[in-house]
Amino acid sequence: SSNEHKLNFKKSKDACLSYIQDALLQKQWKRAAEFLTCFVESLEKDYSREHIGPSEMIWRIGTEILWHHSQSSMKEFSCFMEQMKTLGVKRYLKVCLEHVFHLLCNGQIDEAYQNLSLAESWRFGEQTAIQDKEMKLIQAYRGLLDYYSWAKQKNILFENSEDGFSDLAVEQEMHGYFRKAAVNLKEIIKIPGVWDIFVKCYVDLLEFYGDHNEARQVLNEYAYNSKFPANPNAHVYLYQFLKRQGESKKSLISALKILHDIVPSHELMIDFNTMLQKSKKRKKRRLGLEVIFAALDYAGWKENAKAWSCLARQVKQIVISEKHLDWIKQEWNSRKDWWPAFHFSRYLAKRNWQENKSLSYGKALVAGILLGKGCKYFKYVSHQGCKAQLKRFRMLKKFVNRHNPVYLRISG
């Protein structure tokens, strides 16, 4: 019967999809391609309507297979993509974008630009309005490639000027690319979203032509507009811009404070700590200690010699002055149960000593103050340092032994 035929066909189709999935998971690209061919042929008899249409399945599965298949070429991939563009009007611009990404990954810049230009001129009744966001992305990526061309012309112009030549044609072409890039990049970053690469390129264009106020406005909007998602990079770009402009320490600290709140493990926390330590305000120096302690809570910082040097320096200053020992105590109270095993084991002492003497010095000083002269890490490193007749390690041992009562006060 007709119903029985449809049921058997659905089972067969589902089984075929299951085989394709299994082949993809096992990275058996040839086997997956064979099953996909069977699947495509069988779909000619399928008249069912599903939430995810067959054309989208073919597009996504086929793209994955062709990208990894050892015998596929960029020419075959492009032919496949052109076929996919005709299969689904609703997905036309998405397929175009994916095609462009693959072209760019293969260094085919001109072909990618040509595809973007063709996609930008695409019109299909009401679908044009529905796919407005995809169209803006198409225009944005075209702006990105215009920026790329602008940067190339700029480098040529600089090389010629160093040789004493002036090329008016190159300069005019460069300005032409600037105008096209600026228009499209400016449009995309008005839409709430994460547009890091587009923002960076647009700001670079503005800075080159001396429009620093516009660049500042763009970066402030990107970092502080509540309609945009929280984005650490937005604050990084603003900080880097302010630093290039020679802005006050207050402005730089303000930008990094927000970055610290979002990503306390960011690499710029070293800069943040350094600026805070140089401040005359007690509140900022207190924040500096909090910042460096927080950074060292993360595994990625465990062997960061600069970070341990920053903490060692501040801890040493506090111990010598005997002021604000409560700052250290407050930070240590929430860490004393897990930092010893995380940072100050004998195993780590041996490894740090072998790999980086500066790292082991900073950690040993901190360990000695926080855990006392009986700490395994401090004992091993100070012993090795004295054995190697390194003066700074002899002084380290004397310093910790002399200030051992501080450990008792910190430990409570």
UniProtKB/TrEMBL annotation:
<dbReference type="GO" id="GO:0000120">
    <property type="term" value="C:RNA polymerase I transcription regulator complex"/>
</dbReference>
<dbReference type="GO" id="GO:0006360">
    <property type="term" value="P:transcription by RNA polymerase I"/>
</dbReference>
<dbReference type="Pfam" id="PF14929">
    <property type="entry name" value="TAF1_subA"/>
</dbReference>
<dbReference type="InterPro" id="IPR052669">
    <property type="entry name" value="SL1/TIF-IB_Component"/>
</dbReference>
<protein>
    <submittedName>
        <fullName>TAF1A polymerase</fullName>
    </submittedName>
</protein>
<dbReference type="InterPro" id="IPR039495">
    <property type="entry name" value="TAF1A"/>
</dbReference>
